[in-house]
Amino acid sequence: MTYLKQSDSFNSQDSSNSQDSINLQDNLKRQDSPNLQVNPAKKIRLYDLSSDELVDFAVSIGEKPYRGHQLASWLFRKGADDLEQMTDISRKVRSKISETATSQSLLKPISVDLSPDGSIRILWELSDDEKVESVVLPERDHLTLCLSTQVGCRMGCRFCRTGTLGLTRNLSPGEILGQIVEAKKIITHPLPLTNLVFMGMGEPLENAENTLKSIAVITDPALMAFSMRRISVSTVGVIPELKRLSSSGGISVGLTISLGSATDEIRSSIMPVNKAWPIAELKQVLLNFPLQRGRRLTFAYVLLKDVNDSPQQAQALSRFLGGLKAKVNLIPFNPWPQAPFQSPSQDAVDAFKKVLTDKHHTVIVRRSKGQSIGAACGQLAAEITKKDSD
């Protein structure tokens, strides 16, 4: 079943490989929506403002503070992208707002791909023509949205396709939040969207200010109202930012560490960040990292055939986990074009997991959804998926 809202910009196409693909570029070139165009006047982008900043904006134009709360509700709760939609704000006030600010969406969908497993990959175009991706993942009783925080990434993890792109720029708060707002407009599904993971393109802690600013809106009960327990931020372990978060009391949502290996030799060979901040330094920071009650750290460990999937590597991981309140997600490598690695055998995955469970660690093997459309963990590259010809 296709869980997409039908509109002039979405025309479903049949696919011989059981994969629906909607390419929106032609429609958008013919009839570009005015609320998605680049704003030449450089007006204030309301979607980039926090709730408090919207109040400050309202006061700055001579309005009462409650106007800022109205704007926040229309933007982040109702998804308005046109001031004319804000019907409880008078036309006179809307006109005053439009003189200095815009409520235009900061991104637009240019392609949407549907996987046979139900995953949905959305390619977004930003106002400067850069592109990022989001992925909707269906679970048993809910949907999870995987969010991007940067155009590209400079971390250079060799098992991640995004890392081959390099970093172009950070996403603004509105570009992060827009992935949620606009995805809700595209997708219709019987399951609710309840979970968010900051695990798309980019390193969230390299864009910590905008990531945390977006999380404040996402978890505000009066705005997007997502539960903090249903949100997770992933990082390769940017030590200065982890220390900064630790000194300020931690983070209100879940924290996932992409590990790759628990030995410096292997980790440095596949994750350049380890050359700057080795394993021992990472562990020390994590031992001191404050966790919310009932929270555990999550370690994402991508298994690479004949690289980090041996029982010896599993034993090293077990030693690393000592003293940490943690669980482990094992992720067999998801292949992508010209990737230098292969996925391990099922026997190797089982053997690796057994070493850990024998040491009483909590371990889950994550079989990534969306692999057939380039939407699985490590596959995002901000490009339109090419369909097989009939």
Distinctive features:
single chain, TIM Barrel, eleven-stranded mixed sheet, 15 strands, 30% helix
Describe this structure in words.
The protein is an alpha/beta fold and 390 residues long. It has a domain of 267 residues: TIM Barrel (Alpha-Beta Barrel), CATH 3.20.20. It is 30% helix and 20% strand. The protein has twelve helices and 15 strands. An eleven-stranded mixed beta sheet has the order 1-4-5-6-7-10-11-12-13-14-15. Strands 2-3 form a two-stranded parallel sheet. Strands 8-9 form a two-stranded antiparallel ribbon. Helix 12 links the parallel strand 14 and strand 15. Helix 2 crosses helix 3 and helix 11 packs parallel to helix 12. The chain is elongated. The two termini are 21 Å apart. The C terminus is likely disordered.
Topology at a glance:
Blueprint: E1 21-23, H1 25-30, E2 44-45, H2 51-60, H3 65-77, H4 91-100, E3 101-102, E4 107-114, E5 120-126, E6 131-138, E7 143-146, E8 150-153, E9 166-170, H5 173-186, E10 193-198, H6 208-218, E11 231-235, H7 239-247, E12 254-258, H8 264-270, H9 273-276, H10 279-287, E13 297-303, H11 311-321, E14 326-332, H12 346-358, E15 362-365
Parallel strand pairs: 2-3, 7-10, 10-11, 11-12, 12-13, 13-14, 14-15
Antiparallel strand pairs: 1-4, 4-5, 5-6, 6-7, 8-9
Helix pairs in contact: 2-3, 5-6, 7-10, 11-12
